[in-house]
Every structure is written in C-alpha cells, then in structure tokens.
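We give its fold:
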Amino acid sequence: QISIGDVVRRAERGEGRGRMQGELYSRPRAMASMSWKPSSSPAERQLNLGGASLASELSISSQQEDLAGGPGKTGVGLESGSNLRPPLYSTEYHHDSVAGRASSSGESGAEKGGLVSKWRPKERLKTTAVALVVCLNIGVDPPDIVKVSPCARLECWVDPLSMQPQKALEAIGKSLQAQYERWQPRAKYRVSLDPTLEDVKKLCVSYRRAAKSERVLFHYNGHGVPKPTLNGEMWVFNKSYTQYIPLSVYDLQTWLSKPSIYVLDCPNAGTLMNAFENFALQRYQESAGLPVMVQHPPGRKAPPRSAELRTAMQDVILLGACGMHETLPQNVSLPADLFTSCLTTPIKIALRWFCGRSLLRNEGLNLDMIDRIPGKQTDRKTLLGELNWIFTAITDTIAWNVLPRPLFQKLFRQDLLVASLFRNFLLAERIMRAFGCMPLSCPALPPTHQHPMWHAWDLAAETCLAQLPGLLSGDPSIDYRPSSFFTEQLTAFEVWLEHGSRQKPPPEQLPIVLQVLLSQNHRLRALVLLGRFLDMGTWAVDLALSVGIFPYVLKLLQTTANELRQILVFIWTKILALDQSCKMDLTKDSSFMYFIRFLEMPDSAIPPESKAGAAFILSVVCHNHPKGQRACAQAKLVDVCLGSLQDGPTNVISGSTALLAQWLCLCLGKIWEDSFELTMQAFELGVTEKLSKLFNSAAPNVRAAAIF
C-alpha cells in the first residue's frame, strides 16, 4: 500500500520551492498542509490560516453587538457569509506549532510532548447521597460558647425562636435540604435532627452502601453542641438529650469511606480537619506497611508529609467554617450559619453583606428589598438571574486564574455539586475573613479574598441593585436594564487579543467567554473572539479546553442560526487538529450531521475554504474510527462530497477551490478506508470514474488526494 507521504513526494518532484507572489501555497504539501496524514493524528501540526488574519476577517463591531437581540439574531446586518468569512488554510506551519513526528501508533508529537492537557476528566464522580446532620438543641446553649446579646440567630434563614423548638428544628432541616437541592436536585437526601451516635452511624453506613463508588456528602451543623476536641471528636446527643456524646472523626472515616466530602459548620472546625488528616495518614501508613507516625493529640497540625498525605486524602474533600481556636461570627446582621449560607445561598448572603457596605443604603436600599429581588436565579433575563450568572462567571474566573490546572479540573469541572460548593467557598472566604474567621479547605486553596475580580462583582452588584427601588415601586413603565458586565469583559478580552501572546499571562476573561456563550445576545461576538484566540496556536486551544469550553461548543452544534455556522466550523477544526478524540463526541449524538448539512449548503452562501474546514472535520470523524465511517456513510456523505466535487470544471480548480477539492477527496478516502463493504459501495457509485477526472488538475495537492 502506497502511503500519502510517497504520493506527496512524487507530486513535489520538479516543483520549485520559491513562493510566487499571490500564490496560496509556497510549495505542494498535500497532507502536511492540513496537519493530517494516515499515520498521524491532527494534533501533529496545528491548522494554520493564511492571507488576512482572523482578527480582521472575523471582526464585529460593538455597535452591531449592541443591536443584537431575539432568537437566532445576534446583530443587524450580519448576514450569513458576509462578515464571517474565515481566511484560508495555508500550507505554512503555524508560528508556534508543535514539532514532532508521529509514532507508529498514531500518537502525535503534541500528545507526546504533553501539550494535549488532561482537560477531559478521567473519572467523573457524582455526589449521589447527601447526609445532613443538624445538632442545635434549640433553647439550650453549649456550655463552652459565650454568646453576645443580641447575637446572630438565623439558621438556614429560619429564626429558631419564632416558633416551638421542635417545629423550628424541622423547618431548619427542611430549609437546609432545599438549599442543597438547588445545586444537586438528583441526589438522595436525608436530614438527621439532633441525632444520637447510633443515628449517625446508621445514616452514614446506609448512604455509603447506596452510593457505591460515588461520592457522599456529610454536612455537620454543630451550633448547639460544644466545640470539637483536640482528640478529633465532634458532638451529638444521647437519646434523652441529657448528655453530649463524642463522635470521633476516625469512626466517621470508617463509616463513610471514600469518595466523600465533609462540610463542617461549627466552631474550631480546623481542629476536626487536622484530626481528619492525621487519622487518614495513619490509616494509609498502616495499610502500606510504613512506620506509623501518630500525632498526639490528633487535632494538632501534623508535620508536613506532602506525598503521603496527598495519597491518604485522595478522593476526600473537607470544607471547614474556621480554623483552630476560632469561633463563628455572632454579628446580629448575619445568620448564625454564615458558612452554610455562603455555600448554599451565595447570592442572598453576598447582597445582604454588600448592602451593609454600599453607599446605596443611603439611597433607600435596605435588607427587606434584598429579599424581594424580582426574578429567578435560573432566568438570566431577570435581575436575580443575571446577578447569579455574573457571580458564577466571576468565581469561575478567580478559581481558574489562581489554581493549578489539575486542581481546577478536579474541583470545578468533575462534580456539579462540588463545583458549586467551591465557587461559593470563595465567597465564604471573602465574607468570613472580614469577621475574623478563616474558612479552610482540603485540598487547600490559595487566598482569593482580595482578588481584583471581586471589585468587578461589587460594581456589577451596585449597578443592578441601584435599579431595585424603582423595580419594586410598582411602576409598570420601569423595566430592568441588563448589566454591561459581559460586554465590558468581552471588550477586555478583545484588548488582550490585540497585545497578548503565549509568553504573556493567559487572558483572565477566558472563563467569562464560556459563560457568555449561554447568551444569544453576546454569542456571536464571543465565538468570534474565541476563534481569534484559538488561532494563536495549539497552546490557546489547550487553554480553552482546560477551562471547559468543549461541552458548550458541542451543544451549539444543535443550533440552526446561519450566522454561527462558519465560525463554529472554524472552532471545531482547531479543536480536532489538537485532540482528535473529540470525534467520539461528534459521533455519539450525531453532531457530525451539522457539518454534512454545512457541506450541502449552496456555494454562493458559503466560501470554499469554510467548506474545506467541514470536510477536514468529517475526515477526522472517519479516521481510524469504524463507527464514524459507518455513520457518515449512512448519512450519504459520499453523495454530498461527490456533488460538491462536480460543481465546476476541474481544470479551473485553484486556490480555495483546490483546498476544498483536496479535502473532499481525503474525506471520501477516509469513509471507506480499511472497510471492504464501504469500498464496494463506492465502486457501485462509480466513484473511481468521477475521481479520475481530478488526475488532470493543475493543483498537485488535488491530484495526490484523488490518488489517495
């Protein structure tokens, strides 16, 4: 079997190496031009763009974006194929493409060099069971807690003194469950109110058995019991509520096992976290046959054993309300469970805290208005929904900019509930540090309470809340004016694109671009800017994938908006040129049909170079992928490619038309490669006769592709 490399070399013989003025190609490089050949993956060399830069070809003015609105429309005068014409793919290597030869197994140099990051989690854990343990003993204060008067009383936004103790306890438990269900509605919940030691054991053992290998969350509210001890003990009750019974963290580890997450909302939570780490380290040393170095008492911080401790704490997450020897804030303007409020109702507590610090309080804004903000958190067109959207974007941005990439992937991209809790934990750190508490986590996060993006949140919150008195006045003529936050952040991202490079820090707005893709009004501009960023090189594609852009651009293949077609095709060529494993996702839910329909569109509406990108994508879908080959064959891709090849005489094929013809031929070859059944079908369709006409093409790349 002759290889494409041999075909290319034969086609190159006798060809000059000088670059002719106005020529698209410097010299014929059939398969190398598009960074793909039968023995390598698309990641070996990055797709490159020649001619005018993508920055100028895909420009869109802010005025056009401001005029956007309505489903399927993103601007005035943005007709399909007019402003969004991607430039040509050239045969020149990208300025920062990854060098390296593909191995015989098909692994590219980029992959061997570690460029393709672990953006796709190897294990995607889910939190399927949530145990909520609430120890309040309403009406009886713990003996070692001295409370000020007046002090914080609200638990889960319920005043326990406003009703009978038992009813208040039940209302608090119900409210706590509802707050968690907001973040993970599909999990299994059980609330244990003022439990005994046996109640907690049964709950933990049963939930571990039900969850199997999935994650279990254990939430502990210890506001009605003494502080945890240095021996690593929290407190529960006896059956008659006459004694406090110690519950050892060691026993809790045994019952819940791994993977698990613990939320410890109690004074002196850092002591429990230290004990947890010491006990986990002890278990690991015993199981590994290593010398056991027991820390006494276990509540003290153990000497650093980074490697062993990381292994011992694998698949365990701890969130604590405060450090060792710290008590919880008792400010009457705050809820008693401030840590839980930050984790489960972040917008409400963030705005209430902001209201007390903002000058808007002198202009009629009060806490009662905060509780009556119109809208739903799931509706981004309302005030409450947009504030929640902005908060998510800002906390994601802070985390992505300060955390190592593997840790960001683990905490913010694997488990929906864990990601939500850690976003909200950043808020807890900011608010509780203002009251002398330092929330702790394991894995530990760097300080984020003074990150500059918090100023952007304060500005967005102030801009939105300034409209609140008018919106609540009952005047029907007053409508909510959307925040300019996302428009301004896209402008900042555009400024970075003008001056940024691989040698400079990455754009901190990249996670915000991901969030903007959810908005129809900003979607086109965000995609264009994303395309410009991806065009900077494989490192940019890798960064975009690591931030979580992939599921969004995959979902967008379900859209029917014509103005998004060309830029989506361009973005997908960049993704597949780096990581061809994404073809599995295109095949799984038939998303590849988007690109077949794109090839079927009239030539007058789509430039040839854009169709060449779609043909490249479909070639990757079929490359070493029998399932993709069968799916494309059943979708009549052969007929589509042949139909596109027959549009016009072959002797005038040149430039972008030659590029399209080249990739249509390669796509056809990939459909039936190594498949006798599909090859026979191709013979029945008379493919050989139709392709043989291309042997006389003036473009050597086209001749080589037709021979392939």
Remarks:
- Confidence is low (pLDDT under 50) at residues 1-117, 648-654.
- The CA atoms of residues 43 and 139 lie 65 Å apart.
